[in-house]
Specification:
The chain is mainly alpha-helical. It is 80% helix and 0% strand. It has one domain. It is built from 7 helices and no strands. The longest helix is centred in the first third of the chain and has 30 residues.
């Protein structure tokens, strides 16, 4: 006679299997840092090709200092001189690593449910863009018009270029 109920040993086995699939904190951090650094580099390549090369929105040298102006405003960016490049680079990579660690922490949940990393990355990119730009709007009055469809589409595209490599690296590094 069949039963629709699991035995306690079957439940214990399922819990043990899920625990074994959950990577440790150090592994999550290492994967997140690697993915975040790769994503940060790829988004700068996208910005160089699209924002600088195709759209002529800024000079190539403006990319590293862009984060300084977005966070602290153009006046601070200008007053810092060459240090705006270093501060902007630090801000860029700090937040990219943070987003990488967060993705590495949530990725096992989606992996267990059978989702593909690139699929999750597309939604993660939109979430990251929205959160980052709401924070920029709170921190500074110096930002592009976030209601402009071109800014929104361009922002999502750049963040897709950030999160897809991030997700693929994290997926590989956290594979069992």
């Amino acid at each position: 006679m069949g039963s629709n109920f699991s035995t306690s040993s079957e439940l214990d086995h399922g819990a043990a299997q899920r625990a074994a699939e959950q990577p440790g904190l150090q592994k999550i951090i290492r994967a997140g840092v690697a993915g975040g650094l790769a994503g940060a580099a790829v988004i700068w390549i996208y910005e160089a090709l699209i924002w600088v090369g195709a759209q002529h929105l800024m000079p190539l040298a403006g990319i590293p200092r862009n984060a300084t102006g977005l966070v602290f405003g153009k006046d601070v960016q200008e007053s810092l001189g060459i240090w705006a490049y270093f501060l902007g680079t630090a801000i860029h990579f700090f937040f990219a690593i943070g987003w990488g660690i967060l993705f590495a922490a949530i990725w096992p949940y989606f992996r267990r449910r059978g989702y593909e990393a690139t699929f999750v990355a597309l939604f993660y990119a939109m979430l990251a863009w929205i959160v980052m730009h709401v924070a920029i709007m709170i921190a500074s009055t110096n930002h592009p018009n976030y209601y402009d469809p071109a800014v929104i589409i361009g922002g999502f595209m750049s963040h897709f270029c950030f999160t897809v490599p991030l997700a693929l690296i994290i997926k590989r590094k956290l594979a069992n």
